[in-house]
Amino acid sequence: MIFSQSKNLKSTQVQTDAFIKLCKNLVFGIGQPIVEIIYGIRKDTIPYLPILIWGAIFDVLLLSHLDQKMFRFLKLGWFYPQNPVAYSVYSFIGATMGFWIWGAIQTRKKTNMIQRLTEVFQETGLKSPMGKLPNFIFDKPVDELVRRLRVTNAFMSKAKFDESKDRLESSLQVYIDEISESKSSGTVDILYSHFEISKMFEMKDLKSIGKHRFLVGQTRAKTIYSSLTETPHLLIGGQTGGGKSTFLRQVITTLYCNNTDYNFTLIDMKGGLEFQLFENRDRIKVISTPNDSSSQFHVLDQLLTERFELLKVNQCKDIEEFQQKPKDQLKLPEGVKAETFKLNRNIIVIDEAAELFLAGGKINVSQVQEMTRKVIRLAAQGRAVGIHLIVATQKPDSKAISSQIKANLTGIISFPMATLGASFSILGNGRAKELPSIPGRAVWKSGLDQFEVQTAFLSPDQTKAELDKCSPLKEKSVEEATV
Ligand SMILES: Nc1ncnc2c1ncn2[C@@H]1O[C@H](COP(=O)(O)OP(=O)(O)OP(=O)(O)O)[C@@H](O)[C@H]1O
Ligand SMILES: [Mg+2]
Question: For residues 419 and 408, what is the distance between their CA atoms, to the nearest angstrom?
Answer without folding.
Answer: 23
